[in-house]
Design goal:
alpha+beta
Length: 212
């Protein structure tokens, strides 16, 4: 029977066609025993102690940390501007904020013709930022300033916003208070707080009205 000559593989390169000799792939796992290559590699990996595997994984993560950092985040971050407490920040700054520290998140997304000339925007406000803002507004009232002399010093105060009692962590609701929405406030004592709202355990109540 006449033998059929082996046809070499053809590869394209910048200089043209190159001839690749068949069956010349390097079998690195072949140095470690018999059997098929994937079985030999699996046998080799199984012989590595667990602690050494962990160290190798940590080493790989460390070596490729810069590469992972360059991977773009999900979503259209190129056409989105991010703000934290009214200050523009890069996308990477969002990872520095704990979710529990956020009082308010607002997303503004433009569509149609506006999307051509306007970037989308994400606004985040922290609880500390919100506390400072509403304190600056409320402290214009002498009665409030006497019981809350500085931002955050309102542990003995319960806020009532538009007739809604804010018992715990009021920053999310009070984030709606600003110079444009604020109308008025009134400070009431413990007895009035219990009588009108049934709230016990607080010394004062601060009744706040804002524009809806």
């Amino acid at each position: 029977m006449r033998e059929v000559p082996e046809i070499p593989d053809l590869l394209y390169s910048r200089s043209g066609l190159e001839v690749k000799k068949p069956h010349q792939s390097t079998d690195w796992c072949g140095f470690f025993g018999g059997g098929t290559p994937h079985k030999r590699c699996l046998s080799l990996v199984n012989q590595i102690p667990l602690t050494m595997k962990i160290l190798l994984i940590l080493l790989l993560l460390f070596c490729f940390a810069d590469l992972f950092a360059q991977i773009p985040p999900p979503g259209d971050t190129k056409n989105t501007t991010y703000f934290i407490d009214s200050m523009p920040v890069p996308y990477t700054a969002l990872s520095e904020i704990l979710p529990t520290d956020i009082a308010r998140a607002t997303v503004m997304k433009y569509t149609g013709q506006l999307a051509i000339s306007h970037n989308n925007a994400v606004y985040l406000e922290t609880k500390q930022f919100v506390r400072n803002r509403y304190w600056l507004i409320f402290s214009q009232d002498a009665g409030y300033r006497s019981i809350v002399p500085e931002p955050g010093a309102d542990a003995q105060v319960v806020y009532i916003l538009n007739d809604k009692v804010l018992k715990d962590k009021p920053e999310a609701e009070l984030s709606e208070v600003n110079i444009h929405t604020f109308k008025e406030l009134k400070v009431i004592d413990r007895a009035m707080l219990i009588q009108q709202y049934g709230v016990k355990g607080k010394k004062y109540g601060v009744i706040v009205h804002i524009e809806k």
